[in-house]
Amino acid sequence: MVGTMPESTGVEGMEGGVGLTALMVAAARAIETHRHDALAQDVYAEHFVRGAPASAGWPVRPRQAPDGDANPLWGRFARYFGLRTRVFDDFLLRSVRTGEARQVVLLGAGLDARAFRLDWPSGCVIFEIDREGVLAFKHKVLDAVSATPTAARVPVPVDLRDDWAGALADAGFDPAAPSVWLAEGLLFYLPPAAETYLIDTVDRLSTGGSALAFEVKLEKDLMVYRDSPIYTSTTQQIGIDLLQLFDRDPRPDSQGDLAGKGWSTSVHTPFEFTRRHGRGPLPERNDALEGNRWVFADKLRS
Ligand SMILES: C[S@@+](CC[C@H](N)C(=O)[O-])C[C@H]1O[C@@H](n2cnc3c(N)ncnc32)[C@H](O)[C@@H]1O
C-alpha cells in the first residue's frame, strides 16, 4: 500500500535552513579532496563553497581549518562526510557495474556531483531530486566551470514533502526497469510521514534487482548529544544548528519496513568503514555520530 503523501510547508533557498547543510557537506568534500590520504575526490566541491556568499569564507583545504584535524567540524565531522562520500560512491558504482540497473536516483541530491565525477558505465541516467533553489544554484556553479556530466543527468526540482514520484515519472524514470537509490544525509530532516512515504514510494517504483542506500540516526532523543563537539562547533563556527534542522519526531523503522516488503537489508555503523579503510572517524565520548547508521537494501527478484 502506498503511504499518505505529506504536504510541504514552503520553498527554501540555498542559503537558508537545510540548504546550508549542503554547502557544509560540500566544504567537507573539498577538504577531503585535498587530504594526502583522501577517501574521495570531488573537484567541484570547492566551487560550490566559494560560489555562495554564506560559505565563501569557509575552509576548502585541510590547512585552512583552524586547529586542523583537532577542529570538531572541519576535522572529525568533515572526515565523516569524506568517508560517507566514499562508501556511497562505492555502493552506487558497485550496483550499476554488477547489476542491470542503469537508473540512479539521488534523493536530496544537494551539491552531490556524482553525475560529473564518477566513472559510470554507458547507458546510466542520474536523476537528482532536490528543491528548486538548491538545484538552480548547483547549475549556476557547474555551468561557470563548464562541468560535463559523465552520464545522462536529469535534475528533478521538487520538494520531497510533495508529489515527487509524479515529478520523477514526468522526468522519464521507468519503474519497470531496475534502479539504484540513495538518500544520503537526508532522512533526519524529513517529517516521519515524509520518510515513510519516501520508503513506500521507493519500494513501489523498484523492480527486483533494485538497490537502495540511506542514512538514519537511531537516537531516541537527539538532545542527549546537544553538547557534543560536533553540534556545538557547527553552531559556533558556521551558524548551523543541526538540532534545530533535524526533525525531532519519533522516527519510523525504515529498515524494518523494507525487510517486511521483501528487501534484504544490512545495517552498518560508519566506524566499521573507518576500520575497513584504515581512516575516518572513530567513536568518542559524547558522540553525535554514535546513532548514525548506513543501511543497504536490495530488492529481491520474485
Ligand atoms: C545535508 S544535505 C545532503 C546533500 C547530499 N545528499 C550530500 O550528501 O551531499 C541535505 C539535502 O537535502 C535536501 N532536502 C532536505 N529536505 C528536503 C525536502 N523536503 N525536499 C527536497 N530536498 C530536501 C536539502 O535541500 C539538501 O540539499
TrEMBL record:
Keywords: Methyltransferase, S-adenosyl-L-methionine, Transferase. One of its GO terms (molecular function) is methyltransferase activity. Its EC number is 2.1.1.-. Transmembrane segments: none annotated. It comes from the Bacteria. Coiled coil: none annotated. Gene3D superfamilies: Vaccinia Virus protein VP39. GO terms for biological process: methylation. InterPro entries: Ppm1/Ppm2/Tcmp (IPR007213), SAM-dependent_MTases_sf (IPR029063), SAM_mthyl_Trfase_ML2640-like (IPR011610). SUPFAM superfamilies: S-adenosyl-L-methionine-dependent methyltransferases (SSF53335). Belongs to the UPF0677 family. Exhibits S-adenosyl-L-methionine-dependent methyltransferase activity. This is S-adenosyl-L-methionine-dependent methyltransferase. The lineage of its organism: Bacteria, Bacillati, Actinomycetota, Actinomycetes, Kitasatosporales.
